[in-house]
Design brief:
By secondary structure, the chain is α/β, with parallel strands linked by helices. It is 31% helix and 36% strand. It is elongated and about 50 Å long. The model has no long low-confidence stretch (mean pLDDT 86).
């Protein structure tokens, strides 16, 4: 597939394209230790962009990596028709989608404006050989409707939807169409 065909595929609505039918193992995403908890994080880019802060009275119901992983499994299964597996003990998978979550926070560009930022590395791996078929870094932003934890949650939810759309389009391009043994 050439680059123009790939770009055209990325522009199509997801309902018009399908992944080759496969069993895909999508285990919970990994995350750095600071992000592997239920805190809702924000950064003040206008003050010290490297320092993360937590909202004191707001929490996720699970870690962002677990929540994003479940949302990915649900959407990939629903929108591609593939069999999505959470762990190898359940069924045999043809491919593995490995996710490394690197950023999941609200970023304040100024005291009056913020956005959500999600960044992750995705790797498609052929289960039989453990060969990496493809790897890509995804980064998505979405404007926050308010400058608080509620705004962070809304923006991170919208950003995760955008990110999953990009991830599915990428998987459509990268998964091989050949039959597996």
């Amino acid at each position: 597939m050439n680059s123009q065909q790939s770009q055209n595929l990325l522009q199509q609505p997801l309902q018009q394209t399908q992944l080759p039918k496969r069993n895909i193992l999508i285990s919970d995403a990994s995350a750095p230790p600071w992000l592997d908890n239920t805190a809702i994080y924000y950064r003040l880019a206008y003050h010290n962009s490297a320092q993360f802060h937590r909202y004191a009275n707001s929490r996720w119901i699970a870690s962002p990596a677990v929540l994003l992983s479940q949302k990915m499994r649900d959407r990939i299964a629903k929108e591609t028709g593939n069999q999505v597996i959470k762990n190898n003990n359940t069924a045999k998978a043809d491919h593995i989608l490995h996710i490394e979550l690197e950023e999941f926070a609200q970023i304040f560009d100024s005291a009056q404006q913020s956005h959500a930022l999600i960044g992750l590395r995705a790797s498609l791996i052929k289960r039989n050989t453990r060969d990496v078929i493809a790897q890509n870094y995804f980064s998505v932003q979405a404007a926050a409707p308010s400058l608080d934890a509620n705004g962070a949650v809304a923006a991170l939810s919208a950003a995760s939807d955008q990110l999953i759309n990009k991830l599915i389009a990428w998987m459509i391009i990268e998964l091989p169409n050949d039959s597996l043994p």
